[in-house]
Here is the input.
Amino acid sequence: MKTENIKKAYELAKEMYAAIGVDTDAALKAMKQVNISLHCWQADDVVGFESSQQALSGGIQATGNYPGKATTIAQLRRDIEEVLRLLPGKQRLNLHAIYGDFQGVTVDRDQIELKHFQSWIDWAKQLGIGIDFNPTCFSHPKAATGFTLSSKEESVRQFWVEHVKRSRRIAAEIGKQLGTPCVNNIWIPDGSKDMPIDRNAHRALLKQSLDEIFAEEFPKTHLLDAVESKLFGIGVEAMTVGSNEFYLAYAVKNNKMVCLDNGHFHPTEQVGDKISAVLQFVDEILLHVTRPVRWDSDHVVTFNDEIQLIAQEIVRNHYLSRVHIGLDYFDASINRIGAYVTGVRAAQLAFLFALLEPTEKLKALEEKQQYFERLAFLELLKTKPFGAVYDYWCMLNNVPVAEDYITAIQQYENTELKKRL
Ligand code: RNT
Ligand code: ZN
Here is the structure.
């Protein structure tokens, strides 16, 4: 796209938004607060770099076989650097424990240390980005029974408690070194395929494990803890130990963050609706933004109603500083760099769209019970030129505008990804 046209389109858009009381420059300024955490696991289909790699387990699945996935740390870093070059705004990296720099040495999960992640910290420091972290409680022989932190086998439970404790220590050190708090998110696959008799014991064990894990305290400037609930996974259909009620209650009682993954609820429930409910009772929350198609399929995020409501609820209530935004999808059927950039851009677009809403005007209509006018405005906003504002933002950030990013990814595929065949 020609620079001159991008500018022209923006000027026109600016006037059209000004006519309904929206300041496009202010919206772009506010986009600085939208820092999306890039999940490292889209680059390699959740495989990681342990020396003895296990098949993906825990009821999650990456389907597809598109060539070019990252198989080394160097490749994964190159991929993320490419993704960052194609995105406006500032991002973070979200690491799973299995992505440590293990140098070919076998390091079991209860043995991980800061040294296995130091090269990631140094890399992030050079790029000027923050890192978030996750213990990996799946794809491991000790998770084979389907229970980890809630296991009735004490040695198994202790193994995972140790892993998560170490993860928190590493995360806190990451946050300290990078000068931005590291969000450590605990998700476990625990549950059962068929109707269990003793749900209660597993939930009591999970509570006990979390209490043991969180006994060690870290400054909030280094570490922020989150717990992620789920409705069901593949092969874990009848009962999930860490359900929404379990973690919500735990988080409220212990002032932890809940992680709301929008693939983890009944399809008619909206995570956008949950944000203002949960934030009455906890300081901050974490989001895993994804696109569930009929189940928790983790498709690439697109600009759909669900993500729009999530962004609107955050922006309308000035919650940007209390919500951490992470992505969580793994599509192995398309170019993985394309999957990242398309998903992040869709999420950014949703936030920009929300920032370009005349919220006070709509609220006033609502208070006067002018519901037709409210509905009409919401419909009209859908055809306002927010794409022109996004394009202009890309231009200001010196990243490819509109379809130019497709060409850039095709080039990267030809020069880099094809070498991996
Ligand atoms: C699984 C959870 C969890 C994982 C990542 C890889 O259903 O969403 O967040 O996707 O930890
Ligand atoms: Zn998730």
Q: What stands out?
A: Residues 3 and 295 are 42 Å apart (CA to CA). The radius of gyration is 22 Å.
